[in-house]
């Protein structure tokens, strides 16, 4: 009997099979990816106006921000007014039950707010809200 083959046989017997551990790791990875909560943001920080009648909106997935300089932001992208309806339609198709939340800066113009609301209605969205700060 060859001494090297006996040592090789002993080494093969003592190896740890990592396949079950890798299976568990991949299953955990898939679990965390599926259960993760993805937060959508409009793309800019706005100073929202205060309102006494403010309440929390639970089902919102399309956030649109209006800056004081007249820019419209959706998903961290500056969207021209001409492409607003198409962008909202695409996002509405991804989640038909979602609502549109307009985060208008307190110094933004009401004309922009009306443009965004009209584009959302034209895209088929019926649940539209304007984000505010609750008064204390």
Automatic annotation (TrEMBL):
This is Biopolymer transport protein ExbD. GO terms for biological process: protein transport. PANTHER family: BIOPOLYMER TRANSPORT PROTEIN EXBD2, EXBD MEMBRANE COMPONENT OF PMF-DRIVEN MACROMOLECULE IMPORT SYSTEM. It is found in: Cell membrane. It is a single-pass membrane protein; Single-pass type II membrane protein. Keywords: Cell membrane, Membrane, Protein transport, Transmembrane, Transmembrane helix, Transport. Belongs to the ExbD/TolR family.
């Amino acid at each position: 009997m060859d001494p090297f083959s006996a040592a090789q046989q002993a080494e093969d017997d003592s190896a740890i099979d990592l396949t079950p551990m890798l299976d568990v790791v991949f299953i955990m990875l898939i679990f965390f990816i599926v259960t993760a909560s993805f937060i959508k943001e409009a793309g800019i920080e706005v100073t929202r106006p205060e309102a006494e009648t403010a309440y929390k909106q639970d089902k919102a997935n399309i956030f649109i921000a209006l800056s004081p300089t007249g820019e419209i932001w959706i998903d961290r992208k500056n969207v021209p007014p001409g492409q607003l309806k198409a962008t909202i339609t695409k996002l509405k198709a991804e989640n038909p039950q979602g609502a549109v939340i307009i985060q208008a800066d307190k110094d933004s113009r009401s004309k922009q707010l009306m443009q965004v609301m009209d584009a959302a209605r034209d895209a088929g969205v019926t649940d539209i809200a304007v984000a505010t700060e609750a008064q204390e």
